[in-house]
Amino acid sequence: MTEKREIEIDYGQVHTERMRLNVGPQHPSTHGVLRLEVELEGEIVTDVIPHIGYLHRCFEKYCENCTYVQVVPYIDRLDYISSMSNEIPYALGIEKLLDINVSERIQAIRTILAELNRIASHQIAVATFGMDAGAFTPFLYLFRDREMILDVFERLSGGRLLYNYIRPGGLMKDIYPTFVSDALAIVKQVRETNQEVQRLLIDNKIFIERSINVGIMPPDIAINFACSGPTLRGSGVNYDVRRAEPYLLYDKFDFEVCVGKGLMGTLGDSYDRNIVRMWEMEESCKIIEQAVKFIPDASEDVRASIPKKITPKGEIYTKAENPKGELGFYIVGDGKNKPVRIKGRSPSFVNLSVLPYISRGYMIADLIIILGSIDIVLGEIDR
Hints:
Blueprint: E1 2-9, E2 12-23, E3 35-41, E4 44-51, H1 59-63, H2 68-76, H3 83-98, H4 104-132, H5 137-157, E5 166-167, E6 170-171, H6 179-202, H7 205-211, H8 219-224, H9 230-233, H10 241-244, H11 270-291, E7 313-322, E8 325-334, E9 341-345, H12 347-352, H13 355-359, H14 364-374, H15 378-382
Antiparallel strand pairs: 1-2, 2-3, 3-4, 5-6, 7-8, 8-9
Helix pairs in contact: 2-3, 3-4, 4-5, 4-11, 4-14, 5-6, 6-11, 11-14
């Protein structure tokens, strides 16, 4: 559909024809069932209006009609790329309401699973971002390694996408005998593959030119839009929930908060947001190597602290540093076995809101790069 509009330019008022283009919801570059209503002046983006809701599943209302244990599978379905990580802030919230303290061994296992899931999520983010820029081979390398992580999750929970493994008070079951060696083997493989991806994709001249100085997000804009995760840190903002408000065992580990540095272009561009995810995979490997030292006590029952009946009373907000940013849950209980209210704060939903601001003035081809650099999942946006 086209429409005529009057615009102001330096040499006066002219009549021009702007085109509105629908990108999605089936287009693969929208990373899910997202529709972008794009207004174009030739090939220049003058406005972007994201349309969401195509995947709406009434997550919050479903949870309010389920018992606290039944809520966990619904949480898996938010950011379905990071299902294991999704379960952590919910479990922490229920444990705080019930005053349950889990052992360091359980916290170490949860930490390892969270960091493995972070790696798996970033592998998808970097792989699909490369495809958006026209590079296909790194996608195959990264997905090959991601299968190793999914194999571990499958041995633990029986699922490769949705897990229902982390329970308030503990875990669904104990880890299997070779869990630690499998995790360390993944760390070794991830480091080797990331070196290949660095040479093949990140240092590629074409990829650099496609992503530098594109979708620039200044630090103040990232903060004002309440962005989080690599989308925020790509703008040079040093904020990570694992450091700012430590949970699990993160205060015991040595790792860096990765931030954008504007190495190739302007600080906060699409290149910075992508390279932060590459760096974070290495930091996750460091955390895993440290966390396995807390696991050896195999005599502990990881289900011992799980309450037979969960009936919390009160309200709480708990959050965690998920691969895409800050995932939080506001939980209200009245002493019964079903929550009065559950509200999810999803990072993809918040991060998507900045897309129109950082897309105006760029080419339509750049819009695809910018969207890919934000790394969204629609299951989390629509809920």
